[in-house]
Write a structure and sequence with these properties.
The protein contains 10 helices and 12 strands. By secondary structure, the protein is an alpha/beta fold. The radius of gyration is 19 Å and the shape is elongated. It starts with a strand and ends with a helix.
Length: 285
């Protein structure tokens, strides 16, 4: 029986990246739907849960993506709420690669020692990857802050994550590079998760900082989020700090993403969100 993955995206145009990885993860067919909301998704869910016998439902799964993590979470909840006893399929949430990218990056950081008690700053952390990276490190016991050019956005993101995951994130307003340099002065770990092509820290902002021990940058489009590093840095020592570029942990991200797709088809009760994806990434790091 064919393995069918239904890609439910909150953006108008579903991610081609997610489609490619879905096929690489073993899906036989991927059906893409964009512009979905909790209000218009019901009939699509019905099609996934009513068409196959109980023993065959494991061959159907749902992947939820999009650029807005809050919209993605709402859709994720709506899909699961529509399920009932005997009528459900496995489902995964990974808006803009938020869970798989964050899980891979944080898992690699954790290979250099325990995160518990470490002071962490997530630069431009209000996006999907930044929020999930913050959650994962906080769950490991780190003291995590996220920056934004607008304190309202930072506080809104912290509030949502604190409520959803029962953690304590701190918001920092950092309107420019100099402000971000001040934000990371006492940090031991810095993780940049900003928009593509925006430099968040210049080399002089971190190279002579004696407190920073590890830096990671999720940006793959020049200029990188952290000036003075390379996207291929893979635990490389630079100026006495351990550096992870986006491609340095990118191989793990793709491996985790594919592994999750494979597991979606093991049975019809899998639910992949931050916690389970991070657990998988740690086992693969």
């Amino acid at each position: 029986m064919k393995k069918l993955l239904f890609q439910f995206d909150t953006d108008p145009y579903p991610s081609t990246f997610d489609t490619v990885v879905a096929y690489d993860g073993g899906a036989d067919h991927v059906m893409n739907y964009g512009g979905l909301t909790p209000e218009n998704v019901s009939s699509l869910i019905d099609g996934t849960i009513f068409t196959r016998a109980p023993k065959d439902k494991k061959n159907t799964a749902i992947f939820i993506g999009g650029s807005d993590i809050l919209m993605g979470e709402a859709l994720f909840k709506a899909v699961q709420k529509h399920f009932f006893l005997g009528f459900q399929v496995s489902v995964m949430l990974d808006c803009n690669g938020c869970n798989t990218t964050a899980a891979a990056g944080v898992a690699k950081l954790a290979t250099h020692g325990k995160l518990k008690g470490k002071k962490v700053v997530i630069l431009a952390g209000t996006g999907p990857v930044g929020q999930r990276a913050a959650v994962m490190m906080a769950k490991e016991g780190a003291n995590v802050s996220i920056t934004s050019r607008n304190i309202v956005y930072a506080e809104k993101s912290c509030l949502a994550m604190n409520k959803r995951f029962e953690i304590e994130l701190t918001a920092i307003e950092a309107i420019d590079g100099d402000a971000r340099a001040i934000a990371v002065e006492d940090a031991e770990i810095v993780f940049a998760t900003g928009a593509s092509g925006i430099e968040l820290l210049k080399p002089e902002h971190w190279q002579n900082n004696p407190n920073i021990k590890i830096i990671a940058d999720a940006n793959t489009t020049p200029p990188l989020g952290i000036g003075g590093i390379e996207m291929t840095d893979k635990g490389r020592q630079r100026h006495g700090k351990i550096i992870w570029g986006s491609l340095g942990f990118g191989a793990l991200k793709l491996a985790v993403h594919r592994a999750c797709i494979i597991k979606l088809f093991e049975d019809n009760r899998q639910v992949f969100d931050a916690e389970l994806i991070f657990k998988l990434a740690k086992s693969m790091a």
